[in-house]
Amino acid sequence: KKFGIIDKDQITIMVHTGSRALGHQVCTDSLRNIEQAMNKYNVKVPDRELACVPADTPEAMQYLKNMACAANFGFSNRQLITHWLRESFQEHFNKGLDELDFHLIYGVCHNILKIEEHEVDGKKMKLNVHRKGATRAFPPEHPDIPIDYRSVGQPALIPGTMGSASYLCVGRPRAMDLSFGSTAHGSGRVMSRSKATKLFWGTKVREELGNKGITIRAASPKVIAEEAPGAYKDIDQVVQVSHDLGIVEKIVRLIPIGVVKG
Fold it and tell me: What is the chain's mean pLDDT, rounded?
């Protein structure tokens, strides 16, 4: 009820996108700049993807600014998509927003760095927490949770695939002990996009989804094949692991009826 989901037949919409090419370019440019600065600070790493510099250096500060710009672009992107969704629903149902009760439950970034306070070896420390393929799952009463949800825990959105369930969970206390207040942000791939396009046919995937009562609209059969349900892990098993460990608590299981793939 806290999230406004009170009916098992209620329609919810998940918008899963971000900064796209801008974010990729920010990462590419920043990685190059950080790599060039590592010698200056005598930093050595076993893999270039671990490139880093001290957090108080000009290069680090510039990266945080660039990343924030990309994150803001992602929020704006999702806001525009949500605006167009609202317009479509108003037109289709010939109702106003108040009557439709088309409200945002939660918006969040994943694949981002956050500066947070965590306990390490019994001491509270300020850390740069990098979440890649992960999302925040802070427990109830954590000060960084929006006040409306602070009593229940941070909403954790865990999307599945075009043909499987997705979950709305809330963070639990064990997340702070086990994963720096984090959980998976999705089911996770078992193969790359390129491999998926070799194993699955987009038209066949569309047909299989249709047989399950799921309508899909996509730019091409290729992008459908890239996101074929068979290219991902079992979302129910993935979420159950976090639930059983006390990282999150399952609140709502969402079943797909329609998919739009860019």
Answer: 95
User: Does residue 30 contact residue 112 with C-beta atoms inside 8 Å?
Assistant: no
Angle at 10 between CA 110 and CA 111, to 5 degrees: 5
Chain centroid to CA 187: 11
> Are residues 254 and 168 in contact, defined by beta-carbon separation less than 8 angstroms?
yes
Mean pLDDT value across residues 15-44: 94
CA nearest 178: which of 119, 124, 236? 119
Q: Is 208 in contact with 188 (CB distance < 8 Å)?
A: no
Residue 76: CA count within 13 A, CB half-sphere: 9
What would the two tokens of residue 44 be?
């050595």
Q: Which of 110, 130, 185, 243 is catalytic?
A: 185
Give the torsion sign (CA, 28, 30, 36, 38).
negative
Question: Quick one: angle between helices 20-38 and 58-93, nearest 10?
Answer: 170
Annotated catalytic residue 185: yes
In eight-state DSSP terms, residue 45 is -
The closest of 24, 51, 50, 49 to 37, measured between CA atoms, is: 51
Is the confidence at residue 48, as pLDDT, over 90?
A: no
- For residue 221, the surrounding DSSP H or E stretch is helix 221-226
Cβ 156 vs Cβ 183: under 8 Å: yes
What's the rounded Cα separation, in Å, for the pair 6 and 8? 7
Whole-number Å distance between alpha carbons of 78 and 64:
21
Q: Is 101:3 a contact under the CB 8 Å cutoff?
A: no
Rounded (5°) CA angle 101-260-88: 40
Distance (Å, whole) CA 215 – CA 199: 22
User: What average pLDDT does this structure show over 130-156?
Assistant: 96
